[in-house]
Design a protein that fits this description.
single chain; 9 helices
Length: 591
């Protein structure tokens, strides 16, 4: 197509898009869908617009160059009765919530009359704090097909006011009491905190000729994120990262990805007294490995994403994405954890002969199916339906971690699924989220529970059937995110609606209300031996700017069910769970 031929085509295309995007004027005829398709195909036939487009296109960067992404996050949260009123001071493992009671409620402060008389420890219920994180994710583009990527978390979830510079933390004799500290010190693991000021989350290299080869430590993410979740959302706290060698290629229209994950290397020569710079893996017998194979169809390249945007938002064609994700994990032997810990503490070589291997005989097969359907009916309304179903099948010959212990086998059968349905019409969005995670009849409930996994008669639990959602798949503010720790041994349903007050693509100012109902699948595994987990309502006010500024204010109210009552075996100190409330705010600058 010549230059003179392209210009009328572009003018016609622009006119057609305008007529399609707005109601036609009286007597005017909007472009028919087949005419619009022809115009779109004509313009994109050659893949570019020739010299005219080149005059206005951005200059291609000179290699090497950096691409910068990340965010700064400030969060403040307030919890009232987050511990549900089920903590019994001085009673070990009491309480039914992952949120602890205020420190004035523990045993020593209740027993000390000088403290209790001044701070009022009787029925204290409120805790609150603020924290920050700076995440920086640069990509170094070495050439057209070669790049290096890393992710750094700086002051990761640092609680404000947690690292004062005084004698107790940093042995400063000139500041003996924290009341007179004048500065905050950088956090350092083992010195004045449990985390270093800078934490490297990702570092990998990628080579992309006709396929993609990626090696290093990288985020692992799949589907909705109930099984593998990279924690890339601005309110995520964890993230799954794996040491992986991955190859990705395309067969016809299907992407195929195969990966080898280094889950655990066992004993290493990595200790400060070593005279060698490169640590060694002391054998492969104690390694844990994982092999991943996935097949999927979804837009991956920029060209594919652009075509999807045109098909979905201009041609209103339905879009269907799918994926199959399969994992095989295995470990034959493991280290005697007590001997290995002693070996590390004593410098390595002194008791090398004491490093014993424990038979593990562990394997697992983990299949996952992901489906996504999207349909835009016009520029202002559309439907999205997304589903993920995961399961875990496996066996462990011996769960004992020490040499000489009695072997104990476990069978693993777990299932979980999540469904998200969203309908948009103009400024209103309506949604329904639902899901389930298989439960377990054994005692011990939730990720943060401190009870051992055993049957109620004290015998070991030989069938492990409790599936746990990835903790970065968040559906609420209190019940699953904080009290239980994640979705496990539960079925839930959550209708929601959201309304954007601004009819603008630049800024969003809106309100969202979520109503969550949840019930346990195995009531005998809950602290209260009942099925009803609770009802929660969450209200969020949000302002999002296209430039990357986001402000969210959220409030949540949990009405706990009988499943969260505290019912010890001896029925002493029974506690009924009571209402919990949270108020949270989040300010984010994203780029």
């Amino acid at each position: 197509m010549s230059m003179h031929q392209r210009i009328p085509t572009l003018v016609a295309l622009a006119g057609a898009l305008v007529l399609t995007a707005a109601p036609p004027l009286s007597g005017a005829r909007a472009a028919e869908p087949d005419e619009l398709d022809k115009l779109l195909d004509e313009v994109g036939k050659d893949g570019d617009l020739g010299g005219w487009a080149d005059r206005f296109a951005e200059r291609r960067p000179t290699f090497p160059y950096f691409e910068h992404h990340g965010y700064f996050r400030f969060r403040a949260d307030f919890f009232h009765n987050g511990h549900l009123g089920t903590v019994v001071p001085g009673v070990a493992r009491s309480g039914t919530s992952g949120i602890p009671a205020p420190i004035t409620e523990n045993a020593i402060n209740n027993e000390d009359p000088d403290v209790s008389a001044q701070v009022g420890t009787e029925d204290a219920k409120t805790i609150g704090s603020a924290n920050i994180r700076l995440r920086y994710s640069p990509t170094l583009h070495v050439s057209e097909s070669l790049r290096v990527r890393a992710t750094f978390d700086i002051l990761d979830n640092l609680v404000l006011g947690s690292t004062p510079d005084f004698n107790g933390n940093l042995a400063r004799p000139d500041v003996p009491l924290v009341a007179f500290a004048q500065s905050q010190a950088p956090p350092s693991d083992g010195t004045n905190g449990f985390r270093d000021a800078i934490r490297v989350k990702e570092a990998y290299g990628e080579f992309q000729p006709a396929f993609v080869l990626r090696v290093g430590r990288m985020a692992s993410d799949w589907g909705l994120g109930i099984l593998a979740n990279g924690g890339q959302e601005v309110d995520d706290d964890f993230g799954d990262y794996t040491d992986r060698a991955l190859i990705l290629f395309k067969v016809f229209d299907i992407y195929v990805a195969a990966a080898w994950d280094y889950l655990y290397s066992g004993a290493l020569t990595d200790d400060p007294s070593s005279a060698f710079g490169q640590p060694k893996d002391l054998g492969t017998a104690d390694d844990a490995n994982q092999y991943v194979l996935s097949l999927f169809q979804r837009p991956l390249t920029e060209a594919e994403k652009q075509k999807r945007r045109v098909d979905t938002y201009e041609r209103f064609k339905p879009a269907f994405d799918w994926g199959l994700y399969a994992v095989y994990r295995t470990q034959d032997f493991d280290l005697d954890t007590v001997a290995y810990r002693d070996w590390q503490e004593e410098g390595g070589a002194s008791n090398y002969d004491q490093l014993g291997l424990v038979t593990r005989g562990a394997w697992a097969v983990i299949p996952d199916l992901w489906l996504r359907y999207e349909q835009r009916f016009d520029f202002f309304s559309g439907l999205r339906i997304e589903l993920e179903f995961a399961s875990i099948f496996g066996h462990i010959d011996n769960v004992n971690n020490e040499l000489g212990g009695a072997e104990s086998a476990r069978d693993i059968q777990q299932f979980g699924a999540a469904l998200e349905v969203q309908y948009d019409t103009n400024q209103l969005s309506l949604g329904l989220d639902a899901g389930f995670a298989s439960g377990d009849s054994a005692e011990g409930f939730g990720v943060l529970d401190r009870n051992t996994l055993s049957e109620q008669d004290g015998s070991p639990n030989t069938d492990v059937t409790a599936f746990k959602f990835d903790r970065d798949y968040q559906i609420d503010l209190i019940l699953f995110r904080e009290v239980i720790g994640t979705v496990t041994n539960a079925v839930y349903i959550k209708p929601w609606f959201s309304y954007d007050l601004f009819d603008s693509p630049e800024d969003t100012l809106g309100i969202r209300l979520d109503l969550l109902y949840a019930q346990a699948l195995e009531p005998e595994a809950t602290p209260g031996n009942e099925a009803f987990l609770g009802f929660e309502s969450d209200l969020r006010l949000f302002f999002h700017n296209k430039a990357g500024f986001m402000l969210d204010v959220e409030a949540g109210l949990l009405i706990p069910g009988g499943a969260l009552n505290y019912r010890p075996v001896d029925n002493a100190n029974n506690r009924d769970a009571s209402l919990a409330f949270t108020l949270q705010s989040r300010l984010t600058v994203q780029w």
